[in-house]
UniProtKB/TrEMBL annotation:
The lineage of its organism: Bacteria, Bacillati, Bacillota, Tissierellia, Tissierellales. It comes from Anaerococcus groningensis. GO terms for molecular function: hydrolase activity. Gene3D superfamilies: 3.30.1240.10, HAD superfamily/HAD-like (3.40.50.1000). It comes from the Bacteria. The keyword Ion transport does not apply. PROSITE patterns: COF_1. This is Cof-type HAD-IIB family hydrolase. Keywords: Hydrolase. Its EC number is 3.1.3.-. Pfam families: Hydrolase_3.
Length: 274
C-alpha cells in the first residue's frame, strides 16, 4: 500500500504557465485525506513553494516539502527546515577559487536569503534571486560565521561562458560536489550526497515507510534519483526519455493533469500499485 507520494513541481505538478489544475488539487486532497503523506519535491527554495503548499492544503502535520533539489526538507506545518545536506562558506571559497579563470559569478543561497560577494551582481544573479523570492544580500565571505550553511551554490554567467565551463569542469569540483546545469546561464552546485532521492529516502526513514510504499512522479533528469527510491515510479507523458526508462507507469502530461490522473488511479485501486 502506498503511504507516501512525492511529486515534482515544474513540468509535473503545474502547467507550463505554472498553474495548478483543479484535477490535480482535488486528487491530492483526496490522497491526503486518505492518510497518505504528500511531499512536493523541487529545485525551488521553500519561499517559491509556500504558495503551492497552502493552495494544496498541505500545510498540515505529516506533509513535507523537499527544496533545492534535496538540500532542505521542510515540515509544512511549521514551515521550518527539519533536515538536509548543506555546504559551508569554505565550500563557497573553494568553488570561487576553482573558477577564477572563468567570467562567471558565484553566489549561494539558504532558505532565507540569496548571497553574493559582488558589489554589482550580474543580471543572472538578480533574476534568479527574484525568481527564488529571496532577498539578495551583498556579503563578503569573511562576514559569514563558521557554522553558516547553504543549500546551493550557484555559478552564473553568459551562455557561451557557461558552455565553456561545463565542458571543462574542474575535477576537484565534480569529484567533491554534485554539479548540474539547470539553465543556459546557471550551474547549481550542491553537497555530494544531495539529490531528491537522498532526501526522499531520509524522509521515508523518519516516517518508518519502506521504499515499496512510496509513489514518485516526475519529468526531468533530476527526478531520476527520486523515482529510483520509489516502489512505484510514475513518469509524465512530457518527461525526458531518460526518466521514462525508470518508470513503472507513464501518466498524462502536465497539460492534461497527469499528476491527478495517476493519483486517482491509485485511489481507485485502494492505494495499491497498478
Amino acid at each position: 500500500m502506498i503511504k507516501l507520494i512525492t511529486i515534482d513541481v515544474d513540468g509535473t505538478l503545474v502547467t507550463p504557465l505554472k498553474r495548478l489544475t483543479k484535477t490535480n488539487i482535488t486528487a491530492i486532497n483526496k490522497a491526503r485525506d486518505a492518510g497518505v503523506h504528500i511531499a512536493l519535491a523541487s529545485g525551488r527554495p521553500y519561499s517559491g513553494m509556500k504558495a503551492l503548499v497552502n493552495k494544496l492544503n498541505l500545510n498540515q502535520e505529516g506533509n513535507f516539502t523537499v527544496c533545492q533539489n534535496g538540500s532542505y526538507i521542510f515540515d509544512n506545518l511549521t514551515h521550518q527546515p527539519i533536515s538536509g545536506t548543506y555546504q559551508s562558506p569554505t565550500d563557497l571559497k573553494i568553488i570561487d577559487d576553482l573558477l577564477k579563470d572563468y567570467n562567471v559569478q558565484i553566489s549561494a543561497m539558504d532558505h532565507k536569503s540569496f548571497y553574493s560577494r559582488h558589489t554589482n551582481p550580474n543580471i543572472y544573479t538578480k533574476i534568479d534571486a527574484k525568481i527564488s523570492k529571496l532577498p539578495l544580500e551583498i556579503k563578503s565571505y569573511d562576514d559569514f560565521s563558521d557554522d553558516k550553511t547553504f543549500g546551493r551554490i550557484l555559478i552564473m554567467g553568459k551562455k557561451s561562458e557557461m558552455d565553456r565551463l561545463y565542458k571543462n569542469m574542474p575535477k576537484d569540483l565534480t569529484d567533491n560536489y554534485y554539479a548540474v546545469k539547470t539553465a543556459p546561464f546557471l550551474i547549481e552546485v550542491m553537497n555530494k550526497n544531495t539529490n531528491k532521492g537522498y532526501a526522499i529516502s531520509a524522509m521515508a526513514k523518519d516516517l518508518k515507510i519502506s521504499q515499496d510504499e512510496i509513489m514518485s512522479i516526475g519529468n526531468e533528469r533530476n527526478d531520476i534519483p527520486m523515482l529510483e527510491q520509489a516502489g512505484f515510479a510514475v513518469a509524465m507523458a512530457n518527461a525526458v526519455p531518460e526518466l521514462k526508462t525508470h518508470a513503472d507507469f507513464i501518466t498524462k502530461s502536465n497539460m492534461q493533469s497527469g499528476v491527478g490522473y495517476a493519483i486517482e488511479k491509485l485511489l481507485a485501486n485502494n492505494l495499491e500499485k497498478y
